[in-house]
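Final report, closing paragraph on structural work. Over the funding period we assembled a curated collection of sequence-structure pairs, and we close with a single example.
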Amino acid sequence: MSALPSDDPVIGDKKSCDALEQVIVPRSHDVGGFEVRRALPSIGRRMVGPFIFFDQMGPNEFLLGQGLDVRPHPHIGLATVTYLFDGAIVHRDSLGTEMTIKPGDVNLMTAGRGIVHSERTGTAERAHGQRLFGIQAWAALPKTHEENPAAFVHHGVGELPRIEGEGKRVRLVMGSLFGETAPTQFPHESFYAEAVLAPGAVLPLDDDYDERAVFIVSGQIDIAGDVFEGGRLLVFRPGDRISILALSNARLMLLGGAPMDGPRHIWWNFVSSSKERIEQAKEEWKSGRFDTVPGDDKEFIPLPER
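Its predicted structure, as stored:
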C-alpha cells in the first residue's frame, strides 16, 4: 500500500483547463430488462485507449424473485471487464466457467476468436432482492490477439492493489497507475481504476498515457474551475497533467491507454479490425456454430435482424 503523490498543479490553472477535449453524456439502453447508460462509443469518440464500450449498469433495485437475465450471447475480438459497486452477478461461459462477481472483484473475459456467455442474478440474490450497480467496459483486442483462444480470469477484491492517502482511495483494476500494477493482464498498454474521493481531496492524473478519460459515477468534481456532475465521461487531450478536485463525496472510474492499432468495426456484440470477420461471426451465430454455455444452454439471444 502506498500514498498518492500530492505535488499537483494549481487548481484552476489554464493549462489544466485546456486539457479537456470532450464531455460525453451517456445514452440509455435496455439490456436483459436492466437499464445501462452507454458512454462509449459516442459521436466524435469511438475509443479511449483500447476501451470501445463503456456501460454504467444501474443502479437498479430488484424486488423479491427478480433479477438480471442476460441470456447466452456471443463475442469476438474483445475483452469484457466487469466491475461492481453493489450486488452480484453470476457469469457463465462456453469455456465451462461459472463465477459470481461481487463488489470490488473484476471479471476479465477475453473473447478472442469467439466465446458465448450469460450474466444472471443468482438464486440467493433473487430470494432476497438486491441493488445492482456497476460498470462493464469492453476493450478491443490488438490485431495480433483477435484470433487467440478465449479465456476467463477472475481477481477478487483482495488481489487488486489499493492506494490510499489524503482523502483518496484508489483500487487498480487493470494495467499500471500511481506506481502500482494490477494482476489483471491485458495485451495492450492501458489502465483502469476506481477512485473514491472525500470532499476537498485532489486526485492527479499524469500524462503517462496518450489517451485518458474519467467517468464520474457519482458526486461532483472540479477541473480547472469547471464543475462536472455524475454521469459524465470526461476525455482529456494528451500531454497535460490533470488535477481533479472533489466538491463532494465522489466515485470515479479512470481509464485509458495507448491508441489502438487502427480502427475497429462494431456490430452487435462483435468487434474486429475486419468487416469480413464480423460477417463470418454473424453467420456462425445464426447457424449455431458457436459453443453453448454449460448450465445455461436452454435459451439464447438470436442474431438481430439489422
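The first strand starts at residue 20 and ends at 24. The first helix runs from residue 14 to 18. We thank the funder for supporting this effort.
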